[in-house]
Amino acid sequence: MPDPVTQIVQLITSTYFLEIVVFPGLVSIAILGALFTWFERKLTARVQLRIGPMYASPAGGILQGFADIIKLLFKELIIPEGADRFFFIMSPVTALIIGAALLGLIPFAPGVQIANVEVGLPAFLAIVTLSPTIVLLAGWSANSKFPFIGGLRALFQQTAYEIPLWLSALGVVMITGTLNLTGIVQFQQNNGWLILPQALGAVLFVVTSTAEMERLPFDLPEAESEIMMGWQAEYPGPLFMLVQGPAFIKLYAFAALFSTLYLGGYLGPAIIPPIVWFFLKTIVIIVAIMLFRSTFPRVRLDQLLRQGWTTLLTLSIVNIVIAYFIVVGVPAI
Amino acid sequence: MVSQGIPEETGYIIFLFAATLALVITLRLVISPRDPRPTPEKKAPFESGSGSWIPRTDHQSQRYYPYILMFVVYDVIAMFLFAWALDLRALGAAGTVPILTFMVVALVPLAYALHLAGQRENW
Questions:
Q1: Does B45 touch chain A (CB under 8 A)?
Q2: How do the domains of chain A map onto residue ranges?
Q3: Calpha distance B19→A90 (Å, rounded)
Q4: ipTM score for this prediction
Q5: Cβ atoms A227, A146 nearer than 8 A
Q6: How many CB pairs under 8 A join A and B?
Q7: Looking at beta carbons, which residues of chain A come within 8 Å of B24?
Q8: To probe the interface with B, which of A131, A144, A228 has the most B CB atoms within 10 Å?
Q9: CA distance A143 to B50
């Protein structure tokens, strides 16, 4: 029986533990999530000629997200009457776990990856598929009309955009011939970034993942002006934090997946380290998705579903055909 | 590099998770406010002041229900395409003809399903 102190020291200094707990795992996700909330508020404010948060620290209110976390965490927990307590509390917790699990699959730099699974890309998409069920449960369990409408909207929207999302990522699999995310990055090292041959797929991926993240212009499940934050309406302070957190974690995860699939992940000239390249690309995508919010008006649910099932599906099949000809070669006519 | 199965640190991760949860709950018990006797208004669901509605156990209109049924079918089809895409180079034309047939067989009903989903009597 080894000494428990030695055992704990060994554990805390092991690479695996540090990867899960510190980077790219839980602590860095929490810090980045808090920074992204501040960044989005500041960016939206600048677009709308406002100032945005500025009191929480000298540097332009950069600590606003952390202040919000502390405030929300210690607010009173009010559960509405008639709510299903188990699902009401467990849905945001599960959503948080799902969001963090997505980031375990991303290769941040050579060797900096929590789980280098052979089927990384389908695993990522399969974890995303769990999300509509969680949202529907959260909306249903609150026993209130706006959360329930929001939960149903989330279910329809996320399931409709799931298939174009999968099919747009399929083009990458066809060209690279691997499902492993590290393998996809290594393919791009030899053959150039996939954003050029897969430009249509990249655009489709951004659009469908914005719908999966429920961000504007696809934020119908939480449309503030129609259904009062939708499925999040009944959540009190601490649980509201657990509901808002996954939204930003999913934004981070989808931007990271986009830069892995189409922008070569951590690849780049060796002047700056791979991890910095990775974050530069990810942050560019995050800024683009955040600017959608200030640019586009919200769409209607029936339009959203029809477009998802017709236009986006057709375009993703066109993208598959393009990828097929890239792999096999255009036949001589 | 490629990890398979559950790593041995799982127990520690669960311990860490439980410890963080316990810390937050303890802090909450000490710091955050509690209301021993909440009024009915405080516990009522938020409905913009319009009063309560039918309970959650009642039936709801499922206007877009056909789209969910379509999802169940086409999600599986998308998964099959991943298996084909992975071995595209090795399969060549021999693999493409069946998958084209499969796509045609799958996508023609999709048009009909979309037509049905748009009709009011099917809502």
A1: yes
A2: 7-74, 81-328
A3: 18
A4: 0.75
A5: yes
A6: 145
A7: 73
A8: A144
A9: 15
User: How far, in Å, CA of A206 to CA of B36, rounded?
Assistant: 48
Pairwise CA distance, residues A207 & A85, whole Å: 35
A7 Cβ contact list (under 8 Å, min separation 6): none
Beta carbons within 8 Å of A18's beta carbon, 6+ residues apart: A12
Distance, CA of A165 to CA of A118 (rounded, Å): 20
Amino acid type, B12: Y
pLDDT tens digits, one per residue of A236-279? 888 888 888 888 899 999 999 999 999 888 888 888 888 899 99
Distance between CA atoms of A143 and A309, rounded to whole angstroms? 31
Taking the CA atoms of chain B, what radius of gyration do you get in angstroms?
Answer: 26
How distant is the Cα of A276 from the closest Cα of chain B, in angstroms? 22
DSSP 3-state of A160: helix
Rounded Cα gap, residues A157 and B64, in angstroms: 10
The reply to whether the predicted model has a pTM over 0.95 is: no
Q: ∠ CA(B38), CA(B42), CA(B45), 5° rounding? A: 135
Q: What does residue A219 show for φ and ψ, rounded to 5 degrees? A: -95, 40
